[in-house]
Structures are given as C-alpha cells and as structure tokens.
Q: What sequence folds into this?
C-alpha cells in the first residue's frame, strides 16, 4: 500500500527518511551530511520520484523509487 508522504506527521516523516538514509548500503561513498541526504529524499518525495510503501503483513515502511513500483499500484 502506498502512503502519501503529506499524510504523515512531520516528525514521523523525518524519522522515516533518516532511517532510510542511514541504512548500510545507502551511502555513495562520500561523507554527505545527514541533513543533505534527508533533504534530497524529501525533495524526491515532493516531486513524486520516491514513494512510501507500507506492507501491512510485516508492518514495515520503506521508501522506494517510483520507477520500481508496479504501475497498477499507481492508479
């Protein structure tokens, strides 16, 4: 299930983004400040390039690129 980012409380969204950008394997080998990485993801959400996917079975949220979401989920 896709969750519109604007429906989340600001603090919840920030924590979700911070969790995503600090996961192992998400850095690009550079020492980019956390604030910059959070801002990039927030902007991608606002542009619709990234989406929040909630999986009810596992009760997990994840950020995904829109291009990786099945087209039928976007209708």
A:
């Amino acid at each position: 299930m896709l969750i519109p980012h604007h429906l989340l409380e600001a603090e919840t969204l920030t924590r979700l983004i911070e969790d995503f950008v600090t996961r192992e394997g998400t850095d690009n080998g550079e020492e980019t400040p956390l604030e910059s990485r959070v801002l990039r993801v927030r902007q991608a959400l606002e542009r619709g390039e990234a989406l929040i996917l909630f999986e009810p079975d596992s009760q997990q949220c994840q950020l995904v690129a829109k291009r990786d979401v099945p087209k039928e989920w976007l209708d």
